[in-house]
Design brief:
- The protein is an alpha/beta fold and 248 residues long.
- The protein has a single domain (19-242), classed as HUPs (Rossmann fold, 3-Layer(aba) Sandwich), CATH 3.40.50.620.
- Helices cover 43% and strands 13% of the residues.
- It has helices at residues 19-34, 52-67, 88-97, 116-133, 145-159, 187-196, 213-225, 231-238; strands at 43-48, 73-81, 101-107, 138-140, 168-171, 176-179.
- The protein has a six-stranded mixed β-sheet, sandwiched between helices.
- β2, α3 and β3 (101-107) form a beta-alpha-beta unit.
- It is globular and about 50 Å long.
Length: 248
């Protein structure tokens, strides 16, 4: 197990809230407030993949620490796999430059078991174990509005159920809570935020995700967005407006 590394407090200048940065910050805050994601003295394990979503989430937490009237702690956790190449040294340097406590965990999956389900399950297992060991009561994931709406339709189309990846979910009898503070934000807005703040994210696409059910649903939603620009928000909001009298 890797130890938590406390790094120097530098490179944490205050970011001005304007334009897209302000929009993204406010939408994250709205999700946190609506779903009660943060409380004083929380210890949050932030799952970092090296992509734009997770690094934007980490940056937004740093910004929030400077502005909210209570203390909470964050620990970045990067799960390094043996089949998706990410510049680990660049991530570590970013953690150090921004005074972020971090952990590096290793995940090896045999080639015959490399698929989206098994990879996701294995990563989640590592995050739960790490949260327990380092007394983190929250695990923050970088899933955005696109991810959540895709999951809703995937569960309907392929598993005959109406369910989602909820913005906040208590696990293990409330001992740890999964939170998704980017739940109200589209992928494209997060990408613009990450680019404006020059976050060192990697655009890595796992070859094992090509041609998957999720990719097909993603393409379907993107096509529908050309007809109805609010389609993602509509899908998301529909789970809060279920008309039971009209269900089977």
């Amino acid at each position: 197990m890797s130890p938590v590394i406390s790094s120097l407090q530098k490179g944490r200048g205050k970011v001005k809230l304007r334009g897209k940065v302000r929009t993204v910050y406010k939408q994250m805050g709205k999700a946190i407030y609506n779903y009660k994601m943060l409380a004083p003295e929380d210890r949050v394990l932030v799952a970092v993949s090296g992509g734009a979503d997770s690094l934007a989430l980490l940056k937004l937490f740093l910004m929030r620490q400077r502005r909210v009237p209570f203390n909470f702690e964050i620990i970045a956790c990067f799960v390094d796999t043996n089949f998706v190449k990410v510049d680990k040294d660049l991530l570590i340097q970013y953690f150090k430059d921004n005074g972020i406590n971090y952990l590096i965990k290793e995940l090896e999956i045999e080639e015959e078991n490399r698929n989206c389900f098994w990879c996701s399950w294995s990563r989640r297992k590592i995050l739960f174990e790490t949260a327990k060991r380092f007394s983190c009561n929250k695990i923050a994931l970088g899933h955005n509005l696109d991810d959540i709406t895709e999951t809703i339709l995937m569960n309907m189309f392929f598993f005959s159920q109406i369910s989602s990846a909820p913005p906040a979910l208590d696990m293990f009898s409330g001992r740890v809570k999964l939170i998704r503070p980017l739940a109200y934000l589209k992928k494209k807005d997060i990408l613009e935020f990450a680019r404006q703040l020059l976050l060192p994210f990697a655009s890595h696409n796992c070859i094992y995700g090509e041609g998957t059910r999720r990719e097909k649903v993603k393409n379907l939603i993107n096509d529908l967005e050309g007809i109805c620009p609010q389609v993602k928000k509509n899908i998301f909001r529909s789970l809060g407006k279920i008309r039971k009298d009209y269900l089977v």
